[in-house]
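Q: For a teaching session next week I want to show students how multiple molecules come together into a single three-dimensional assembly. I've collected the sequence lines for a complex. Could you give me the predicted structure tokens for the whole thing so I can convert them for display?
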Amino acid sequence: MSLSFLLLAVAALCALSFYFGRQRAVALSGGRHSNLHSLPVHYGAYTAAWCGLPALALLLIWYMFQGSVIEALIVSDLPQEILDDSGRLSLALNSISLIAAGNGQHLTVEPEIVDAGRRLANIQTIANAALVVVMLSGAVLGLSLSYRKITADMRARNNIERIARYVMIACSAIAILSTVGIVFSLLFEALHFFTKINPLEFLFGLEWSPQTAIRADQVASEGAFGAIPLFVGTLLITLIAMCVAVPIGLFSAIYMGEYASPKFRAIAKPALEILAGVPTVVYGFFAALTVAPFLRDNGAILGLDVSSESALAAGLVMGIMIIPFVSSLSDDVMSQVPKSLRDGSYGLGATKSETIRNVIFPAALPGIVGAVLLAVSRAIGETMIVVMAAGLAANMTANPLQAVTTVTVQIVTLLVGDQEFDSAKTLSAFALGLVLFLVTLGLNVFALKVVQKYREKYD
Amino acid sequence: MTDMASLMEDRAAAKVISDNLRKPVDWDSPKIARNIKKRYAAERRFKIYGLVAIGIALLALCMLATSIGSKGYSAFYQTYVQLEVHFDPAVIDPDGTGDPAVIGRANFDGLIKQSLRDRFPDVTSRSDKRDLYGIVSGGASYDLRERVLENPSLIGQTRTIWLISGDDFDMLNKGYIDPTVAEGDRRLNDQEVSWYNDLVEAGAVEKQFHTRFFTSGDSREPELAGIWGAAVGSFYTLLVTLALSFPIGVLAAVYLEEFAPKNRFTQIVEVNINNLAAVPSIVFGLLGLEVYLNVMHLPRSAPVVGGLTLALMTLPTIIIASRAAIKAVPPSIRQAALGLGASPVQTVTHHVLPLAMPGILTGTIIGMAQALGETAPLLMIGMVAFIVDIPGGALDPATVLPVQIYLWADSPERAFVEKTSAAIMVLLAFLVLMNGLAVYLRKKFERKW
Amino acid sequence: MAAVSQSAMAAKPSVENPKMTARNLDLFYSDNQALYEVDLDIAEKQVTALIGPSGCGKSTFLRCLNRMNDTIDGVTIKGEVTLDGRDIYDKRIDVVQLRARIGMVFQKPNPFPKSIYDNVAYGPRIHGLVNSRDELDEIVMTSLERAGLLKEVKDRLQSPATGLSGGQQQRLCIARAVAVSPEVILMDEPCSALDPIATAKVEELIDELRSNYTIVIVTHSMQQAARVSQRTAFFHLGKLVEVGETDQIFTNPKDERTKGYITGRFG
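A: Of course. Below is the structure for the complete assembly, covering every listed component.
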């Protein structure tokens, strides 16, 4: 039974129990709702909740453990020599799952593995059937228990409201859970990585070439995991992006907020916001196929040697992407500067630009700094533009015309394609992810604090 | 600050105004007049900076649009070549069984090759023949088979048929390959160009609307590749995302806004949500890879995993938008309901939520639009695979529109450039539609309290 | 008091040699008319108080006198306002210069988020009134002195102005206005955000400033108008109802509406 069908079945059971609960309440009331503590729908909702929630919880728990349990069952029966070789093991597991899915006819593998594949298919069938049984029995059990508890003076509304409250708390907790999930999954694999590579070497090493470490039996299998070139590349591109986005974003915000006629604003503002809604993959395409060749050709005319994957192209396009971000944030911030300060300046005979430069801008500066920091954090974490327009070469250079690589580019290249969770190459992506997460988190926390402090000041 | 600098320059000038507080400033003095002039010039300059900034931003937008549009519009048309095909019974159905299974296995490719050889009989060498076969796409044989299966009476006849052309030929016809440059610098040699000219003169080359682009899945051959597979993948992914993030997001927002006590837990949740909204999307990809694939062993490349990952990513957007919408409902409404004896939950479900719904939906649509355009986290969970089949459900391997764009952008064939641009246009069209809907909702239900 | 000779003139609706005049002044916010044909003279080196119930147009009128209404969208003005006989709404008049000649102090103290010194120095700097740091120092000191603030702040000129108390902030704003040596100072309910002690100080200050500047003050408090002003104008529903010497307005108002307002029957 497929998952969607199972979910539908549970939903149908919920609807049924709603009906039963409601019917029972109506029957108990003897036709007068005032004999009941709560409305009939509350009784219905009560039984429906007790039917659906346990089933969903069971499903969730089941899926959390099913994969690892089945894998453990299969692995435990494999011959020792396969278990000892991690490369062979992952290959074997791959073949086993292919065979189990019925796609393994063309494989030439040991009979043990064919057996294991069949066993896996069996286990999967059993597991699926068991899941159906467990879920449905959970649902029915919940239904019958709650159905029996219904009496005329049961506080069904209070009960269902308490359940609703717990469900809401659980939903809010998911926000925390996903942070915890991020931290743990990054930390877990990164620590795994640091048992192979010294963290100091990773953070301060000057050479990055993880691609050599694909197979253990290759010569020079160690690779080099010094991330400084990636940090330098990321910073270089971020810097270029900021050089584009901050002045243009700020001046657009100023013009929109202080000078533009309402008509102009009504057209230009949404147009600017379109820039923010364009998917990053589109910017990446634009950078790689339009901007980079343009820069290269024009650079050649000027006698400059511009790499076709130059940091400049990626940075420029990233800057364009961030313009609306900077402009809308700083617009917000500047419009919060109280009108009395403007009046004070105009009243002394200052011109508009003098008022903006000498009064509004300094007053809004903390907020603007916060906005710029948020933009920096975005630029650092931006992936697609750099994946498509910046290179893979881990050059340590401050020359924007050369190719550089960034943290995000490396994470993508390391994790797209074959992943081996015991090789330093794959694991290093998580270490990079951890650094990326910590840096952006630090920037965000700091920037949000600054902005909030600023808001409080003028509230 | 320029004022200060000029003041320093004027330091040598007479110290006249030392007692200017007693006698009024002479506003008509040349010095003041000069100063005023300078100030107004600065004012104009400043204003121009602003205009220039907006101009640059809008110019960038225009360049982006024209670059995509000019590269992509031609992908909606495809070159077809007219050939005389003889439906040779000896090839299609030698025993005259009429059995569709037999016909289906027949070598239609051979028929096309034969008719190409018939059209250009002077081609003899092996390599020339290979070039010759490149005029027609490898996919044309499937079309031919469909045709015969639909209408078996064709067997034995000779018909003039429009066949889909190969990608290089298509590029030549669309003008992307310049036949005037040196032979070594273009993908087609002189002989191929002469075949093309020959066919054009005979009126046997034409561009037709390229429906296949909208109906088929990915392919290694640009002329056969379509976006339908990716679109369906995107649909399933978004479905999962919506099914998870909408209820969870709204419930969390309701809790935080209406029920949560102001304690440490709520505070942590709030800070958390604000920060999650700014976590780079690729980090969510790493989370998905580790938790869904490595720990829970969900299938790789499946929309369900993509949806789960994107749901976590969109959650903060939806929560923040929903909270704003809920906050905008005036307290008087809550007091009225509570005053009538409604419980807090009833107050929320009967009054607050319906009133906040337009705002919540707007936020949700915007969050979905973000998710639709998201690429990086999906690369992490294996949705970059080359998948030809149209996915039939959320558990089948699939790719999504932005990833398809990424994949095509990486392909070396010239013809994929126009496909990529066209796919971008389709993606943008969806995004415009979604955002338009959000704007419409906001306008329609906008309410001033 | 040099008012003996002036009081004779002040009894008339117009004064001789007025510093500023308004004639037939109409003002519209988009389609709503806020001022109706206001005729008023502002006597030089006197304090003119504008009183009236809230929304009567007195603040609006005040903001017409230095064209602060220009910064609001949708405001149109008809009629004539003159400074020393020249129409300030004339195209050739430069607003920036005009506002330097006619300073303004606002309802709520609005020091810029800069140091005390920079607040006062702001006007002279933008208008290019000084040639050296010493001159600027002198202007700042003199202005603070005039605003009666120097003693309180002279040791912390570089500390942020927002750290001052409300009354000090308002006097700083007055010092800031004085620093460009304006001819007229407009004050829009300058004491409404201040406590009584701070109010007393500001009122004292206004009285001192009168010897050098022409002052127009909008006030909600009739006592304040009576204490600080020589002439008083009563506005009602966008119209100037009555204007005259303060003593006369408060003791013997000619118009019934004025009488009603002053005796507290409305407002």
